[in-house]
Structures are given as C-alpha cells and as structure tokens.
Amino acid sequence: MITLDAIGTFALIVGLLTLTPGLDTALILRTAAHGHHRRVWGVVLGIQSGTLVWGVLTSLGVTALLTASHLAYQTLRWAGAAYLVWMGGRLLWTTWRSSSESPQTEGTRSTTGAETKAGSGAGDTLLGGWRQGIVTNLLNPKMGAFYVAVLPQFIPAGAPHLAPGVLLAGVHILLAVVWACALIAFAHALRDRLQRPAARRYLDRITGTVIAAFGIRLALGQ
C-alpha cells in the first residue's frame, strides 16, 4: 500500500513541475486570453487525459519499453518536435500576416472576428481543445521519460503497480487542474486588455515562440 508520505513527496515534485512555466502554461493562457471558454477547458482536459495515459502506461511498464527502444523513442521525439514547430510556426505566421494588414481591415476584424472568437466561434469547441491538449501531451516523450524515472520510486516493492500508479497520476492531474483554474482566472481578469488586437498579436507571438522553441529543443534532444 502506498504511504501518505510517498504521496506527499510525489505531490511536491509534480507540483513544482506544474508551476514551472512551460508548454502547457503557454497553451492554456493563450487559449483563455482569446476568450475561447469551451476550448480552454478542452485543452485542460486533453492535457490531463494525456497525463493519465502516461501514468497508466508507466504502471503497466509500457513506457519503460518505449524509453528502452531507441527507434521508438526517436520516432516519438521527432513526431512531437515536428508537431510543436508546426503549431508554433502557424501561430507566428498568422500574427505577422495580420499585422501587415491595413488599419481599416484590422479595425473590422477587431469588432467582428474578436467577438466571434470570444464567443462561440468555429474554434471554440471542447472537442477541438481536448484534441489539441492530448496530442500535445502524448507527443512529448519527456513526459514518458519523467514518469518512468519518477513514478516507480513511489510504488512499494512487490505491490501491484496499476492502482498506485493511477493514484499518483491522479494527484498530478488534480494539482495541474488547480493551476489551470488559476491561469484561466488570471486571463479572465485581464480579458479586456488581452482582447485588444495588439495584445492578442503579442500574446500569440510569445506563445508561438515558446511552442516552437520547445519543439526545436525536443528535436535537438535537450
């Protein structure tokens, strides 16, 4: 049986990991800042679905095989890197293209397009956010490597791995959801400023740069 001390120590480790600014933070903040209320919760659910999958696979020993197989790990690493660079590059390209438009066109977009995105626009879907969140999480082999390195240390020797592994992954998910709620509340509090076209462009550029940088780092194996 897993002890409370082990759960507490694991919670401290993953809590610090959750608070560290990274890809998930950038993705949630950007989606929330755009006023995509349904999509941002889809992103949160997708990321945490991926975390649960990594926890289950690690408990079953599957991720250990992944990290042990050079070909499998490299394939996942390159797929994840390509996806992140593509997603970040698309954000950057969109912002640079919009900034080159005339002020009149931009003004039209700010009164119509922003309202669409802030409400129930085509991109504001729970399923779309969930798909983006889970793909981003599952294509990050470092998540699997982290769970392989950390999770088994907190599971008692000789005990079944699945139930304790899912429990610990649940602790990680709980902390991550709490942090996501704080990020969404922060973005909501600043929504008037963040909904301005210039602010949205800068936010998208920052987010796109962060995501693309993570992809490049992943490709370089750092």
Automatic annotation (TrEMBL):
Keyword set, alphabetical order: Cell membrane, Membrane, Transmembrane, Transmembrane helix
Positions of region (Disordered): 100-123
InterPro entries with a match to the protein in the record: LeuE-type
Feature: compositional bias, Polar residues: 100-114
Transmembrane region(s): 6-29, 41-69, 144-163, 169-190, 202-220
GO molecular function annotations of the record: amino acid transmembrane transporter activity
Keyword Flavoprotein: no
Presence of the UniProt keyword Iron-sulfur in the record: no
Localization, UniProt: Cell membrane
Membrane topology label: Multi-pass membrane protein
Gene Ontology cellular-component terms listed: plasma membrane
Name of the featured protein: Threonine/homoserine/homoserine lactone efflux protein
Organism name: Streptomyces echinatus
Organism lineage string: Bacteria, Bacillati, Actinomycetota, Actinomycetes, Kitasatosporales
